[in-house]
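Please check this.
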Amino acid sequence: MELRTLGRTGVKVSPLCLGAMMFGEWGNPDHDESVRIIHRALDAGINFIDTADVYSAGESEEIVGKALGQVDRSSVVLATKAHGRMGSDANMAGNSRRWIVAECEASLRRLGTDWIDLYQIHRPDPDTDIDETLGALTDLVRAGKIRYFGSSTFPAHEVVEAQWVAERRGRERFATEQPPYSILVRSIERDLLPVCQKYGLGVLPWSPLGGGWLSGRFGPGRDNTSRRARRVPGRYDLSLPGNRRKIEVVGQLEALAAGAGLSLIELAVGFVLEHPAVTSAIIGPRTMEHLESQLPGADVRLSSDVLDRLDEIVPPGTNLNPGDAGWEPPALSDPSTRRRR
């Protein structure tokens, strides 16, 4: 695979990043099979692996650690995340210094490594000053625990705020952003991707297959169910107009892919990698078959005619289902923020 530069870090990464969310209880509980999938991805030229503490309550990190213990760790760019709840204690979540430092140490133990290449804050935390978060992350860089840090699913204005705070307070800055992005989920084209380009952030889109909608399993006349629906039902509930619209769109995309001599998966991955702001698309296979079907996407280049047709099917900046944005700010989710008491 032709490597790309990760933002302004100078680090070279593959255009596909192996996402490990489906390794463990959430997806594939067979550790040995999951390790084989990781090794196959590395053999295929992927040098970038992304996981998170909350994926199967740390089990994913443990599996990744087992796999990396059998290869040259220095050849792998390893990313993980913190923010999500990891226990019943009120302070075992969020973006505070207290939690970030503690959870970084826990991730290092689970991963069986001395350092994390890219440590990401999984979601914004309205209760925590961004300077608190950047200060903790900066100290972890200076201590050699992490090499770089980034954000995940942050709105554009918070990405900008973090850049300004880092400059004014003398902190290290976010080097990357990891947003949801696919043919079906394009809202980040409006502001987030231009902001990332302006500030030189590497962009690592998650769910380029739209949570499985672009895997070939969904479409007119099919079962149209997902094993992920228990965790994120709003992305699959067919009583929602946006999800019903996805079925129609998938049918159009399949015809477009076939006309271009591609699989639907190749079309989906190729679309994400075509955007000039994108560094590496995160694929999340559960089985070896899933991995093999997604690997060819790294080499796809879509013609202008195909890209124009994609823009007609799903207009730029559009999310078919608003619930696919990955994070809803409290100003929308909490009615009390919009009402005078």
In short: The CA atoms of residues 147 and 232 lie 32 Å apart. The longest strand covers residues 146-152. Residues 4-318 form a domain with the TIM Barrel fold (CATH 3.20.20.100).
